[in-house]
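A quick aside before the break. I want you to see a complete sequence-to-structure record at least once, exactly as it would be stored in a machine-readable document. Don't worry about memorizing anything.
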Amino acid sequence: MSKEHNKIMTDLQRLLETQNFKSEDDVRKFMDNIIGQKIPSFPKEVLNFKEQAQDLVISAYELTPAKAKINIEKALQLDPDCIEAYEYLGSIERTAELASIFYEKGILIGRRIFGGKYLEEHKGMFWGFHETRPFMRCLQYYSDCLYRMGKVKECVAILEEMIELNPNDNQGVRDQLLLYLIQLDENKKFLKYAKMFEEDSMAFPLFNRALFSFKTEGDTENANNQLSKALKQNKHVAKRLLSNKPVTELADHYGFGDGNEADYYAHFAQHIWQNTNGAIAWLTKHSAKS
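That is the input. The structure line, written in tokens, reads:
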């Protein structure tokens, strides 16, 4: 999400909180009436400390690093529990080790604020509420840091927590979760989550299923059929997986079956395929036929 979009969503949330809705129908009517209209920003004078802190963080992304850090310091003075501030601090670190410290701080705050009764009432919908999104983003970025640090099991535990909090998986972490479960030989868990998202048909899930089938069954008819489906969906993936050059640069977007999608999958999966006994030879054999 762009910072501009984040600001709009923040202002929309504040606008909704000023309304005295009596029913869900009132909410729908209100939303229908503001479609196409500019969402108003609230002046600083009417914002509480928490909201002022949020605005300081949003502005920080548009500033130079030195000025941004001043914003972040002010934000944390206004609201020591400003998760967005720790999300920002994690985003500007170059190493996973340092970034993880800030993301973990944001997560600890989130677990405290959104635990207990809040968790009981909102579990399963954590992406659907604006206030929990910074917490969910910290979880995602923290999981990435853990994986880069070689802490695969800890990474998987965070990804599973995210799915539990938001089974719809709006952040799209299920693909990496399934891939890392293959890496860890967590077969039962793989089958559990693969069942939850069995309708997924992009390259990431299809090649995951193919790799899982080969790793657990060998060169079987089922594994070959899974690989055939994957190769048919995206003809570019095999070349990326077979290359000795890692994919480090990713496009801002990708489409069904295109090269950018292949890059996205290979970025995460190339080393796992290459470290799975026999998988590269199997892929080479079948990709030559397709």
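Two observations worth writing down. The radius of gyration is 22 Å. The chain has two domains: 1-14+34-168, 185-290. We'll return to this after the break.
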